[in-house]
Amino acid sequence: MLKFSLFPLHFFFTISSSSTISPLPSTLRASDTNQSWSSPNSTFSLSFITITQSSYVLATTHNVGHVIVWSASNNATGAAVVVDSSGMLNFLRNGALRLVNGSGPIVWDSYIANRGVSLIEYESKGRRIRDS
Asked: Is Cytoplasm one of the keywords (predicted)?
């Protein structure tokens, strides 16, 4: 498992009652690059980006120019975490947000399980994890 900081790029835990982007449980699949979780104004979206025919990176992109503003990465090396076409981002009932490779291992984890997080939202400034 790879640990990351929750604070870069506007990762916060807050209590709010604004629109839900991704209720529990939810899954993004690397094999479906048209699937994404987007901000209400569509400024940002979280999706899998194709690197090669069989490798993908989970990334947040800005709608202008599809610039990558964040990607799941290894804190020790800073390298992007790459998954195969069976990779998935799972937002589980216990609030865990985990990226798994198709072979099953967790390759990236938000370490927010069992902390009361029950929905993922975006704001105009980027991604937010919220507690409802």
From this structure: no
Q: Which residues contact 106 (CB under 8 A, 6 or more apart)?
A: 1, 98, 99, 100
The rounded distance, in Å, linking the Cα atoms of 23 and 132 is: 10
Q: How much is the pTM?
A: 0.75
Look at the chain and count its residues. 132
Domain membership of residue 15 (yes or no) is no
- 35 is in which domain, residue-wise? 22-130
The one-letter amino acid code at 3 reads K
What are the tens digits of pLDDT across the range 16-28? 323 345 565 689 9
Q: What is the CATH number of the domain that holds 71?
A: 2.90.10.10
